[in-house]
Amino acid sequence: MINCKGAMKNIVKGSEALLQTLIEEGVSTIFGYPGGTMIPLYDELYNFKGKINHILVRHEQGAVHAAEGYARATGKVGVAIATSGPGATNLVTGIVDAFMDSTPLVCITAQVNLDKLGTDFFQEADIVGITIPATKWSYQITKASEITGIVSKAFCIASSGRPGPVLISITKNALVEDVDYQYVRYTSSRLNKQFFKTKLEVEISEAVRMINNAERPMIIAGQGVILSGAERELLKLAERGNIPVVSTLMGLSAVSSNHPLFMGMVGMHGNVAPNKMTQQSDLIVAVGMRFSDRVTGNTEKYAPNAKIIHIDIDKAEFNKNVKVDLPLWGDARGILGKIAPEVKFNERKEWFSFISEYLEKERKMIINKLMKHDPNGMISMAQAVDCVARLSGGEAIIVTDVGQNQMFGARYSKFNGKRSFITSGGLGTMGYGLPASIGAKMGVPDKEVVLITGDGGFQMSIQELGTILQSQIKIKILLLNNSYLGMVRQWQQLFYDKRYSFTELINPDFMKIAQAYNIASRKIEHCSELEEGVKEMLSSEGSFLLEVVVRREENVFPMVPSGASLDESIYNTDN
Amino acid sequence: MKREYIVVANVNNQISVLNRITSAYLKRHINIESLNVSRSYIKGVSTVMISAITTAEIIERIVNQLGNIIDVHSVDYFQREDVIFKEPAHYKILKHNINQ
To answer: What is the pLDDT of residues A210-237, one digit of tens each?
Structure first.
């Protein structure tokens, strides 16, 4: 039979059209959880075994964080599916997380039949309405004929410009209706949307002039560098101009930790030198970052001596948190590629000597003390993370949860490869780590994936150990157990007179839990066992849980207290 | 300084676009003083006019964020004195009054 466009008719159910479209969009792995309204899609999925790898999670929040981890590790769009009502609402935290961290996702949720919409039907929730503030785009499909076009458009929107999450809600009738399936890829030119400026010649000349005239310039690499694939261009700019590079939390791994021009991380728990540099610099080249409060500290006192060039693909980020002198709207790779060849080398002896002084200060005041062997055998979180970094040679993909484990993970890990640090930056979602590491491992199975987590966050998504068991996912879990919600406890200690209100945790026996899920495990309580334990974890064939019992009341230092300027770091509990 | 700003956006005539626009105000805890949606001269495109009291800085950020919405074609903001209001009025006039 021929359809109105002259093509052979290809009559399929809506659910098959959806899965075929996913395949056309390059999807090979999806993370999901079935439910009543979603049964038609899962019924069709039964026929797609071998074409689409569906990872059955244990909670929809696990699906969406896994999709985030997959997207962050691969650069592709992550896909999470859930049923209507509670299935859909369980995705919300991950959607907001992805929105804050510019992670490309397509979340597909089922919805009750079109004729039942708005009747408070069983498992009906207005998921489009609920997610409007935290999605780049959303659409409710109510007939099968819309599926292919809308799903393809969703992928295009999620991945173009500044990436982000898109939500597609599909009424059950659309999944079961017949449709003439004809796939046509949706391209960004059809969006009628300018994501960035293409002609920037004047601004680029001005940027080059500012960089060449600067005496104390610095580059801040945000996640936009990674999203744009601009790592090489950024390094070229840094090397040609002899400009030191620092990174935001989300920008870690854009530049190799071993590069001589890489000086560390800025921000609340950033390294001393990058924060001091920010306050002394006469020119900041900020690439793909949004001047988050965790990066700037008090914005009134931020970078008092610096002109700021801000390169970003999202025009709305310019002057949002910090006034900038030269906004460059566009794709970071393209812009850096034009600036770098024009930049002149400058020795900057004084500037580098200033930086070295503070690198050395941090080594003496903080790092060396943490790495020192404790006579009682107590383990610092920094030692555990450092041990993983040394023994993995900086080649592992590091996924963290949120809190002290995240900050120690960021500060003491080493990164050789790009896309090798995955964390929840903007939203700070505890429970993110375990499912995100599952997603990352599914995305890059040949890479070692190490999750650094704490006893609090681990238990927020501990059910995903079942996903590891069922899908035989080989991740290494470094569980830093201090039996506290460590970061909140740190704030209570420093700013609330040590009133530890509900931050102490009575934990289960994690070894028994690992055993129940058939995951190899080991518990370490003395620093003399640390190296051996990490070696055992990294050399194990399958998944491994290494529980490291760490100092109970260790703090992450240096720390810029909330609302203080980057100059006002505290280094210990005394100040 | 806070004052009235009028945002004018040309948007796709689609479900949920209005919610996306108003959510940008809600997020910043800004009350919408008046709101009007009407058909534009382009088929499928509507014009949304929103008046709210806020600062120039905030309204600029809101407009930038609205510009990111996929279904928003164009958006700008104005002060009340920059806008010419057309308010059509219909009067019913008795025939004998016209003849007089």
So the answer is: 999 999 999 999 999 999 999 999 999 9
pLDDT digit string, tens, across residues A394-419: 999 999 999 999 999 999 999 998 99
Residues A151 and A146: their CA atoms lie apart, in Å, by 8
A195 three-state secondary structure = coil
Class for the domain spanning A379-549: alpha beta
Question: Residue A161: what are its φ and ψ, rounded to 5°?
Answer: 60, -135
Predicted local confidence at residue A2, as pLDDT:
66
| A86 close to A111: Cβ distance less than 8 angstroms | no
Between CA A521 and CA A475 the distance in angstroms is: 12
Q: Single out the catalytic residue among A381, A407, A430, A487.
A: A487
CA dihedral A39, A43, A48, A54 (to 10 degrees): 40
Distance CA A23, CA A405 (A): 37
Whether residue A9 is predicted with pLDDT greater than 70 in this model: the reply is: yes
| Segments of chain A assigned to CATH 3.40.50.1220 | 201-354
Work out the end-to-end distance of chain B between its first and last CA atoms, rounded to an integer number of angstroms.
54
Is A447 in the B-facing interface, judged by CB distances under 8 Å?
A: no
Domains of chain B: 3-99 (3.30.70.260)
- Round to whole Å and give the CA distance between A287 and A243: 14
B5: helix, strand or coil: strand
As a whole number of angstroms, the distance between CA A300 and CA A567 comes to: 12
Is A277 designated active site? no
Confidence (pLDDT) at A6: 67
Tokens describing residue A374: 């404790």
Cβ–Cβ under 8 Å, residues B63 and B17? no
Q: Say yes or no to pLDDT of A575 above 80.
A: no
Where are the CATH 3.40.50.970 domain residues in chain A? Answer: 11-191, 379-549
| Interface contact flag, A133 B26, Cβ < 8 Å | yes
Q: Do A132 and B70 touch (CB under 8 A)?
A: no
Size of interface A-B (CB pairs under 8 A): 36
What is the distance, to the nearest Å, from the Cα of residue A155 to the centroid of all Cα atoms in its chain?
19
What is the reported pLDDT for B100?
Answer: 62
Tell me how far the alpha carbon of residue A260 is from its chain's centroid: 25
Rounded to a whole number, what is the distance in Å from the CA of A100 to chain B's nearest CA? 14
B98 touches chain A (CB under 8 A): no
Note the pTM of the prediction, 2 decimals.
0.95
pLDDT at res. A1 = 61
Question: In this structure, what DSSP letter does residue A364 have?
Answer: I
DSSP B34-93: EEEEEE-SSTTEEEEEEEEEE-HHHHHHHHHHHHTSTTEEEEEEEEGGGPPP--------
Active site annotation includes A60: yes
H-helix or E-strand containing A240? helix A231-241
Residues A29-72: pLDDT tens digits?
999 999 999 999 999 999 999 999 999 999 999 999 999 999 99
Nearest CA-CA partner of A172 in A346, A41, A23, A10: A41
The CATH superfamily holding the domain A201-354 is TPP-binding domain (3.40.50.1220)
> Is residue A404 within 8 angstroms of chain B, CB to CB?
no
Which residue in the set B16, B61, B73 is minimally distant from A320, CB to CB? B61
Q: Which two structure tokens, joined as six digits, stand for A101? A: 């961290």
Residue B98 pLDDT exceeds 80 = no
pLDDT in tens, A471-518: 999 999 999 999 999 999 999 999 999 999 999 999 999 999 999 999
ipTM for this prediction? 0.90
Domain A11-191 CATH class label: alpha beta
